Amino acid sequence: MRPRTIDLNLLVMLEALVAERSVSKAARRMGLTQSAMSHALRRLRDTFNDELFVRSPDGMEPTLRALELANATHAALEQIERTIDKSASFDPATAERTFTLRISEYVSGHLLQRLCPILRKEAPGIRINAAHFTGDPREDEIVGDEIHVRLASSGNPEGRRERLRVLDERFVVLMRKTNPARRSKMTLPFYASLSHVKVAGTIGTNVIDDALRIRGLYRQIVFNVPSWRDARHIVANSDLVAAIPARWARDRETPLPCVAVPFPLDDVTFAIDLEWHPRFALDPGQTWFRALIAKQF
Known about the structure:
Helix content: 25-40%
Number of strands: 11
Oligomer: single chain
């Protein structure tokens, strides 16, 4: 196939379809009608002799050929834009743009409440679409210009991505001020002997259990709860203890009668990563937004 015979507008539409995974959303992104985008998809399929997208319970899934073409198109368009305007910049005060966040539930309470007032004051034209990770492994893939803010993993998630560590925090043991355990030295065996609240599903707290198991120790989990805030309130009203990242143990807005002591293992930490697709590494708007997110930790 000779490249000069291809309608380059179709490639731009394909890039939008891959990013949005929906004909209607891609049409809105391109300022077209849904029927016009459907017609473009038919032409694309005929041009490349490939289905390009297959239907799945979660919408349109691009084929390998579609992903290859979309990635190449996006890279070419970025290069053209940089060549045309080498002074490309992003002015948050005047920009109108929507950023999409996929964010761990344990992080959203900390991050979103800090981002909102900054954006309303400094970047009033910026819109945020934020959604939690639900545990579906397909959500590990970074779709389009999504930005992921998530608990760090020791493994290597599938798919191309760039990553920035925005938080590397030590754990503390949180307990009520009147808890008798406060009078004892917090050794590892003593910690394991206590009754615990665990924030279920976090990578960090699972690492704690793994570290104890290696040493032949186990902790008694009395409560599994969905958030650090829940854990703090349970600790404040019971004889239970909780291993919590140091900054989550502090809450100036709703101070509780609790005290934090050092966690008895130095090699167990709580980390948060910021992730994005390499295609958007040089995007001025996303570069600004990623830096803003990182400042909140």
